[in-house]
Design brief:
Blueprint: E1 3-11, E2 17-26, E3 31-35, H1 42-49, E4 57-62, E5 65-66, H2 75-81, E6 82-86, H3 97-106, H4 112-125, H5 141-153, E7 159-163, H6 171-186, E8 190-194, H7 198-204, E9 207-212, E10 215-220, H8 228-236
Parallel strand pairs: 3-8, 3-9, 6-7, 7-8
Antiparallel strand pairs: 1-2, 1-4, 4-5, 9-10
Helix pairs in contact: 3-4, 3-5, 4-5, 5-6
Length: about 240
């Protein structure tokens, strides 16, 4: 297995529970949706994989290595393999499209001669090869999200994490972004995406892990957005 969570719990300093005794595994090359209500633990799940936070209990393994035990100087190397895209893009407004993507390689000290070809390849993949000199403020929301995807994949990560990547986009643009993420996944990158978008989850029929109050309440192959937990809450309400 590429990713394994073993009895992982996360309790924040204010007492809030992010995850409670979560055990699950994800195979190399899978596309997985994380669903559930706000506060269910989806973002906690993703942040544990980037070592932005560490669990209170349990182990998180990537390729058999417990990443919760990484030394501080090892974390940047982890983040070359596990990259994140966000709902709000997080682009540098004063840098061009090209420079935003190149920055991801510069911070990991890729040789200068490698940066240009890798950036151009990533921008061509996301359909922005003609926007290299544009600035984020000159782009649509969908284009900005494509830049953020290019920045995340430019180093050929093992895992691409997506935290509500279509949350600020209209439905047509959201589907365009999903087609791009599926294409990246088919190229061999494991994709884990948190979302509230029912139409996308139901339409794509990928693996669905549902979280509720920090617990995994459902894990379905070719799943839909609302499973047993959702139906139970409706009936009990």
């Amino acid at each position: 297995m590429l990713i394994c969570f073993y009895e992982v719990s996360k309790v924040y300093p204010n007492g809030a529970t992010g995850l409670h005794s979560v055990s699950t595994s994800i195979r190399n090359g899978e596309f997985v949706f994380l669903v559930g209500p706000s506060g269910a633990g989806k973002t906690t799940f993703l942040k544990l994989l980037t070592r932005e936070i560490t669990p209170t209990r349990g182990q998180v393994l990537l390729n058999g290595r417990n990443i919760t035990r990484l030394r501080p100087n090892e974390i940047p190397y982890l983040r070359r393999s596990v990259r994140m895209i966000f709902q709000d893009y997080k682009l540098l407004p004063n840098k061009t499209v090209y420079d935003n993507v190149a920055f991801a390689l510069m911070v990991i000290e890729r040789p200068d001669k490698q940066i240009g070809p890798l950036v151009n390849k990533a921008l061509d993949l996301v359909g922005l090869g003609n926007k290299v000199h544009a600035y984020p403020g000159e782009l649509s929301g969908g284009e900005q999200q494509r830049v953020s995807i290019a920045r995340a994949i430019v180093g050929a990560p093992l895992v691409l994490l997506a935290d509500e990547p279509t949350g600020n986009l209209d439905m047509e643009t959201s589907w365009d972004i999903m087609e791009l993420l599926l294409r990246i996944n088919k190229g061999g990158t494991t994709v884990i995406m948190s979302t509230h978008n029912i139409a996308i989850v139901d339409g794509l029929k990928q693996r669905v892990i549902e979280l509720d109050s920090g617990r995994v309440v459902r894990d379905d192959e070719e799943g839909v957005y609302e499973g047993e937990a959702g139906y139970t809450s409706v009936l009990s309400g």
